[in-house]
């Protein structure tokens, strides 16, 4: 039970931090798109080698 409470508090802490960063313009849609593209490229690297374009949007 103690582990679950600690995990829940950590999740709340991270979500509040994300909100504050978004409101103060440290996170932008462009930055989030670039991070998503980078994560796709890291986890789906074999598709890139097959010629798949993992760019999000235009």
Keywords:
58 residues, mainly alpha, 3 helices, 0% strand, transmembrane, membrane, transmembrane helix
Q: Helix-strand pattern, N to C?
A: HHH
Radius of gyration, in angstroms, nearest whole number: 16 Å
Could you report the average pLDDT, rounded to the nearest whole number?
A: 91
- Number of DSSP E strands: 0
> Per the principal axes of the C-alpha atoms, what is the gross shape?
flat
Q: What would you say this structure looks like, in words?
A:
It is a single chain. With 58 residues, the protein is mainly alpha-helical. It has helices spanning 2-23, 29-43, 45-49. Keywords: Membrane, Transmembrane, Transmembrane helix.
Write the layout of secondary structure elements.
Blueprint: H1 2-23, H2 29-43, H3 45-49
Short structural description:
The protein is mainly alpha-helical. It has helices spanning 2-23, 29-43, 45-49.
């Amino acid at each position: 039970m103690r582990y679950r409470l600690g995990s829940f508090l950590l999740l709340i802490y991270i979500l509040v931090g994300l909100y504050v960063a978004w409101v103060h313009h440290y996170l932008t849609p462009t930055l989030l798109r670039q991070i998503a593209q980078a994560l796709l490229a890291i986890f789906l690297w074999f598709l890139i080698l097959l010629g798949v374009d993992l760019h999000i949007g235009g």
